[in-house]
Fold this protein.
Amino acid sequence: GQQVMQIPQYQHVQEGEDFTTYCNSSTTLSNIQWYKQRPGGHPVFLIQLVKSGEVKKQKRLTFQFGEAKKNSSLHITATQTTDVGTYFCAGPDGGSNNDMRFGAGTRLTVKP
Amino acid sequence: KAGVTQTPRYLIKTRGQQVTLSCSPISGHRSVSWYQQTPGQGLQFLFEYFSETQRNKGNFPGRFSGRQFSNSRSEMNVSTLELGDSALYLCASSSPVQYEQYFGPGTRLTVT
């Protein structure tokens, strides 16, 4: 089934720096979702992108869906210590039920 | 609405034993998915149930099984536990209308 690849695996930044994680698929995705998991917590849904070239913002977070709907990115401007956690992208597996398959995640640490 | 609940939250078992984990989805959600999360493998899809039927299954051995009841509550069972089964087991529910998944807090299973 469809898999999404996510990079980088880890990212360590100084507070105030920007952060970006990328998600790539070999095939076109009907949609892509992003989740955040805080240390010791469970994944929490952030957003879903559906349209080609779509850009959505949530405060300091900017989500993009590529024109070909094969890649996506999450960009955080001026990171804060509250941004610490692992960010996952998830895309449908291409099967009849379109179950979501998660990328490996990018673990973000922020140094105050 | 109450969130997804999972019981027990923590469990310690011995190799060779079996274990049953429980998940109660958000009211009205009929789809329940199970994931295994380990530091090295990320979020691995186990299976998904919808209206008491298994709709999809990940790449796990037959020792991993599940079921869903008429009230949408779900259980997963792991027989003949191995050390490598130590992980955080997450369940997530979703509605047919909105595909985002709502995760429970997870059951942390330790096999000794």
Notes: Chain B has a mean pLDDT of 93. Chain B touches chain A through 19 residues (CB under 8 Å). The first strand of chain B starts at residue 5 and ends at 7. DSSP finds no helices and eleven strands in chain B.
